[in-house]
Amino acid sequence: MSLNTPPRILEIAGETAITKDNYSVKKILVLSFLAGAYISFGGLLSIMVGGGIPEIAAANPGLAKFIFGATFPVGLMMVVMAGAELFTGNNAYFMPNVLNKTQHWTAPLRNWGLVYFGNLIGSLFIAYFLVHLTDLVQNDPWHQVVLDIADNKTSDPFYKTFLKGIGANWLVCLAMWMGMSAQHTTGKILGIWWPVMTFVALGYEHSIANMFFIPLAIFEGSSVSWSGFVFDNLIAATLGNIVGGAFFVGTLYWYAYGKRK
Length: 261
Hints:
The chain is mostly helical. It has helices spanning 6-21, 25-50, 54-59, 61-71, 74-83, 87-93, 95-99, 106-132, 142-153, 158-181, 185-202, 207-219, 226-258. α1 (6-21) crosses α10 (158-181) and α10 crosses α13. The protein is globular, with a radius of gyration of 18 Å.
């Protein structure tokens, strides 16, 4: 089974960026709503499975982190294979074209802004309507896990959350790159699963996932406030995600394989 080479992956990313830039505002908002929902489904699965094993977590916290991370990637698989617009993945796609000056720098800003908003709406929709109102995490151990996640994510200083954001989206965009290397569904699943599992198990910060995790905790009675969500996590995680995806994947792979001499 053949794989797309790194230079070909860069070409695919550039072609994808041009396609995305031609989407209407309405289409971007619909597809980004779906991506926020899909990432939230992955987060919910992680809570229900990885958060539902307190005895294992107490005896073997590393195994519990692995299980939590191992169930999360289903969200990105749905984004990639069903088709949706995810802010963090899109951080890398546009950079090769922008750096080669085949696409204007305003293209990623337009896409990122619209997609970020749509991802937020999709995440909040799942958190409130399909989790909070359905009482899926009303009882322990899941309820306490939800509260603990929000407390942990809003307790780091800005620089730590920023650095964790770099790590998260470096791995997420590598998952996108590795998914593009494969030409069949099984290969795409494996390419996506490993890096995404890694970032979640390591405890890195993904802004779109946090649009689900932290608001869900707020809906469930967390002491974390909406301003705490934004200023103690979301801003730093988002900026780190942009650096992780746009520089460490989009820019460095452009320099290695796509820079015009």
